[in-house]
Write a structure and sequence with these properties.
This protein has helices at about 15-25, 60-65, 110-130, 155-165, 170-175, 190-210, 225-230, 250-260, 280-285, 300-305, 330-340, 345-355, 360-375, 385-400, 415-425, 430-440, 445-450; strands spanning about 35-45, 70-75, 80-85, 90, 100, 130-135, 180-185, 215, 220, 240, 265-270, 270-275, 310, 310-315, 320-325, 380, 380-385. It is of the alpha+beta class and about 450 residues long. The strands form 5 sheets. Strands 1, 2, 3, 4, 5, 6, 7, 14 and 15 form a 9-stranded antiparallel beta sheet that branches. A hairpin with a 2-residue loop joins strand 8 (about 215) and strand 9 (about 220). The chain is globular.
C-alpha cells in the first residue's frame, strides 16, 4: 500500500489524462491476475512489546536480515524502509507493521505459496532477533503512545493532520493490520459491476475476517475494532462511496471523487512537502500555496490515490479493503473469496443479483453495524450471516468453474474452508478469541501472542 510508487513522472496536462490512467488498467480476462497484501504486528518474544525501527532487534534489522533471500533494499534518507523482489515488496506501516505487497499472480494457489514463503522467511529472521509476528486486525495489548513510529516522511505529515479530521486516525496508522486483494477488470462496464458488487459485499468480508476484539488488554466491545476505526478517521477519504451506485458512474466520476479528497503531501527532490488539506484541483492549476506555479506529475497522482481509504479503492485495478489481518489460512482465503465472486461471469451475475436491490440505507447499515455485531447484523428478517453463506456458496462455485487446480487436484475453493466454518458456526474469529480470553486465558491477552503467532 505504501511502498515505492511505480507511477511515472509524466506531467499532467488535463483531467482526461487522469481518467485515461485508470481506464488503462482494463485488460482481457486471460491477463487477469491476483495481488494479495497483508500486514502483521511484530513483537519481542520476551516482553511482547512492538520493536522500534532502530536497534539490534529492530525493524531495520528485520529488513536487512531478509536481504539474504534476494530482497533488494529501498532507502529513504539512508534508512531502509522497503524491500523489492520479483514484482513484490515488503513495506512498513507507520508503527512498523510489516507488509507484504505480493506480486501479481495467476491463481490463488500461487498467491498462497507466495504468502507461505514470505512468512517462513520472516520467521527465520525474526527468531534470530527474538521477535515474533502476529496477524490480527488491531494491536491487542499496547497503547497508542507505546507504539513506535517509522522514519518515513509521509507518516509525519499524516500524523500531524489526522487528529484535525477524526478521533481515531492515529490508531488506524499505528495499531491496525489488514489483508486485501487487488483484482483486474476487462472494461469500464466490468469495473463498475465489480465495484458495486464488492462494495455491497465488503461488510460480509469484514464479518468473515473480524479479528480485533481487544484494546489495551481488554475486550473493546467490537468484533472488528479495525473496521470501526475507519468510521472516525477522516470522512473525506473513507466510507462506502454511495456515488458508485449512481447512474453514469465510471472512471471519470471516480477521478472527480479523488480530486475532492484533500491532499496530504507531494514528493520533490527527496523531500515530502506538507500539503495537508489542500486541493489536488488547485495543484492541477499550479495554485498550491507552498508550491506556487508547480504542476503535478502522474507520480503525484499515484501518491495521492494511496491517501484515499474507501472500503473498495480504484487504481488500475480494484482493491478489496474490508478485512482484518489474520492467520496464514485467512490470508489465502481473502483472495479466494473475491476471485470466486468477481473472476467468473456466472458468479459475478449471481453476486450482483444478491445485492442489486440493497438500498443505500441497507448498505450503510451493514457497514455501520458489522464492526460490533459481525454475522448478527439484522437484515430483512434475517442476518448478515445469511448473505455471507450465500456469498461463500457463489464464490465456491465460481472457483470450481475456474478450475485452477494444484498438484493434488484441488481447486482454489479449498481456501474458503476456514470462512465456511466460521459462517456455519455463526461465530467470528474475534468471538473465538473472546471465549479463550474469558476461559482458559484467565482474562489475559498475553497467550494470544504465543498461540496465534505465525
Amino acid at each position: 500500500m505504501s511502498g515505492p510508487s511505480n507511477v511515472k513522472e509524466l506531467p499532467i496536462a488535463s483531467k482526461q489524462q487522469l481518467v485515461e490512467f485508470h481506464a488503462s488498467g482494463a485488460r482481457p480476462r486471460e491477463q487477469w491476475t491476483i495481488g494479495t497484501e497483508h500486514e502483521k504486528f511484530g513483537f519481542r518474544l520476551d516482553d511482547l512489546r512492538p520493536p522500534t525501527y532502530e536497534g539490534e532487534r529492530g525493524i531495520e534489522a528485520m529488513l536487512r536480515g531478509l536481504t539474504r533471500f534476494g530482497w533488494q533494499p529501498y532507502e529513504e534518507k539512508g534508512k531502509v524502509i522497503a524491500l523489492l523482489r520479483d514484482g513484490a515488496s515488503v513495506t512498513l506501516e507507520p508503527a512498523g507493521q510489516f507488509e507484504l505487497s505480493g506480486a501479481m499472480l495467476k491463481n490463488v494457489h500461487e498467491t498462497c505459496c507466495e504468502t507461505m514463503q514470505h512468512l517462513q522467511e520472516v520467521k527465520t529472521v525474526a527468531e534470530e532477533l527474538g521477535l515474533g509476528f502476529l496477524g490480527m486486525g488491531f494491536q491487542p495489548k499496547w497503547r497508542r503512545d507505546e507504539m513506535p513510529w517509522m522514519p518515513k516522511g509521509r507518516y509525519q505529515i499524516m500524523r500531524d493532520y489526522m487528529p484535525k479530521v477524526g478521533g481515531l486516525g492515529l490508531d488506524m496508522m499505528t495499531r491496525t493490520c489488514t489483508v486485501q486483494v487487488n483484482l483486474d477488470f476487462a472494461s469500464e462496464a466490468d469495473m463498475v459491476k465489480k465495484f458495486r458488487v464488492s462494495l455491497a459485499l465488503q461488510p460480509i468480508a469484514t464479518a468473515l475476517f473480524a479479528d480485533s476484539p481487544f484494546t489495551e488488554g481488554k475486550p473493546n466491545g467490537y468484533l472488528s475494532y479495525r473496521s470501526h476505526i475507519w468510521t472516525d478517521t477522516d470522512p473525506d477519504r473513507t466510507g462506502m462511496l454511495d456515488f458508485v451506485f449512481e447512474d453514469g458512474f465510471g472512471f471519470e466520476r471516480y477521478v472527480d471523487y479523488l480530486l475532492d479528497v484533500p491532499m496530504y503531501f507531494t514528493y520533490r527532490d527527496g523531500e515530502y512537502i506538507d500539503c495537508a488539506g489542500r486541493s489536488f484541483k488547485d495543484f492541477l492549476a499550479g495554485k498550491l500555496p507552498n508550491l506556487p506555479g508547480v504542476l503535478p506529475t502522474m507520480k503525484d497522482w499515484g501518491d495521492h490515490m494511496t491517501t484515499a481509504f474507501p472500503e473498495v479503492r480504484l487504481k488500475k485495478y480494484l482493491e478489496m479493503r474490508g478485512a482484518d489481518g489474520g492467520p496464514w489460512n485467512r490470508l489465502c482465503a481473502l483472495p479466494a473469496f473475491w476471485v470466486g465472486l468477481l473472476y467468473d461471469d456466472v458468479a459475478l451475475d449471481a453476486a450482483w443479483d444478491l445485492v442489486k436491490d440493497f438500498t443505500m440505507a441497507e448498505r450503510n447499515a451493514l457497514r455501520d453495524n458489522v464492526p460490533r455485531l459481525g454475522f448478527k447484523v439484522p437484515h430483512r428478517g434475517g442476518t448478515l450471516r445469511d448473505i455471507a453463506i450465500e456469498a461463500l456458496k457463489i464464490s465456491g462455485q465460481g472457483l470450481a468453474r475456474r478450475n485452477r487446480l494444484n498438484r493434488t487436484g484441488a481447486s482454489e475453493a479449498v481456501f474458503l474452508e476456514p470462512l465456511i466454518e466460521f459462517a456455519m458456526a455463526n461465530q467470528t474469529p474475534a468471538e473465538r478469541k473472546l471465549a479463550l480470553y474469558h476461559g482458559e486465558w484467565g482474562g489475559s491477552v498475553d497467550p494470544l501472542f504465543r498461540e496465534f503467532a505465525y
